Amino acid sequence: MHYKTMRGLGLALLFFCSTMASAASVSVAGFAFAGDFKSAAERFPYTYKLFKRQQAQGAQAGFSYLVNERTQRIKSKELEFQPADKLVNLKNSDQALMTVLMLTGETVSTEYFGSYYKTFVNLRGDALIFDYKSQTIVRSYPVSVVLFDATPNQPTEERIAGFVEDLIRREDGRGLVTQFTRRLEAATLPKEGAKTVQVRKSVVAPEALALMPEALRKNPAAVEAMVSDSFASILSAKLGISMLPSAIGHAVGGVMSMRLENGDDFKLKLGEGDYLFDLKLNKMVKIKQSENNIGTAYVYGAYGNVHFFEPSLNTDYLNSDFKNGETAVVPIDQIGTDDFSAYQDAIRGLFLKLADALQQPSGKWLTTAAAAKDIEAQVEASREILRKTK
Questions:
Q1: How far apart are CA 76 and CA 137, in angstroms?
Q2: Which of 261, 275, 334, 376 keeps 20 to 30 A from 99, CA to CA?
Q3: Residue 305 vs residues 73, 154, 201, 225, 321: alpha-carbon distances, Å
């Protein structure tokens, strides 16, 4: 073979090997419950019951097995996910990277609306990449999934558990494990000196809380966590940025605890982000838009405030009230109206449209939805900061 050809093949092989070697090795730890495991049954009642049932059925029935199986399908240029049975390499390396799907929130409510029962289920979590050696978070991508179901009879505990299991296992974009693997597929390791982003707090005003289902009105902290995690999940997915787990209920004294499905406990350091978001849901409204012999159209509105800032320099990048409306048609023969799902659409729509604006210059929604007169300049400044956190 000609020398130049041999040399070309050698260089190509060297490039291929160096490319393969550049992929960081990440061990898959599976599924975990956030927080003190002693209270897991209280905080995650349905997921915990499924977890105990699966323990009795064997390892292949568990959520960790599912997480491991699907993670092996991921195609990533930067990360190489190791099978579950491959031990973490603690030698000859500054880091020992692991990834886990950590469940941070489970919210369920059922209400009766004249002719049917409406069940709402929200599961929230984080796709975490952490360093086993230093017990620190390297990357975190929030995930959140929602299910609404209507039944003529009150759903049994077993049926609701089925809803929860389906939300975790389903393979489309509304499944928790699917969202986990999609975030990991696009994940990158941070560059040296990379800044972190976090939702510091979320406030739901009494006027907005009053329009929530009764089960949620009794637990304002859960509603605030839902708002925080929904925003973080949407922003992270749209912009492709890592976001530290929300400070809301996830850490005590700068330490975040979690229990893996196999019984291993971890305590990860969780400090405050370099850049922070504060959210407030001020109110929600329902306005009749039109009516005919088929049904009535309503506009459901969500009003809130988003504040993005750098605490160390006391610098605001974004601070404005926003509003968003979504239209829903109620059939004329429908007995009872479930407004909560429509309000959820309005809140989610606000977050989605704002995330779109933070991703790239958008249409007129921003100027009509925001109260701040210099909103385009605020969003441009925020956009540049968020780009630098990737």
A1: 20
A2: 275
A3: 40, 36, 12, 16, 4
- 100-121 tens-digit pLDDT: 999 999 999 988 877 788 899 9
Tell me the domains of the chain and their CATH numbers. 25-192+243-271 (3.30.160), 197-241+274-390 (3.30.160)
Query: What is the Cα–Cα distance from 53 to 59, expressed in whole angstroms?
Result: 11
pLDDT: which is higher, 301 or 112: 301
pTM for the full predicted model: 0.86
- Burial code of 117-130, b = ≥16 C-beta within 10 A, e = fewer? bbbbbbbbbbbbbb
Measure the CA–CA gap between 310 and 251, rounded to whole angstroms: 21
Sheet holding 295-310, edge to edge: 197-204, 275-291, 295-310, 315-331
CA distance 131 to 246: 19
Instruction: Report d(CA 279, CA 160) in Å as an integer.
Output: 30
What is the pairing mode between strands 97-112 and 79-82?
Answer: unpaired
